[in-house]
Amino acid sequence: VQLVESGGGSVQVGGSLRLSCAASGYIFSAYWMSWVRQAPGKGLEWVSDIGTTGWPTNYSDSVKGRFTISRDNAGKTLYLQMNNLKPEDTAVYFCARGRSSTTIATNRGQGTQVTVSS
To answer: How is the beta sheet containing 33-38 ordered, strand by strand?
Structure first.
């Protein structure tokens, strides 16, 4: 399993970023996928997940209405569109295969840094 995130960066409050996650080494379309994040000094926080066909989608209360998860099974890519970013969104964002905390911990990428400044 290889997951490579990209698209992070530094933005101002209210800005937008689109994260991508390129997957390889397994049948991408057969698995739920998740986004999780880790802020400085904190543990992993679940952000969103998506079913194998692109539905259903679930979001944490902290990002609901601002973030959109999607996937391209043909291209083996997972996305996270992040709008109206807030300073508390600052974190390293990881994509992960699966939904459970155990699976996420052992099947995630190297992460991409998102920094939101006011």
So the answer is: 9-12, 112-117, 91-97, 33-38, 44-50, 57-59
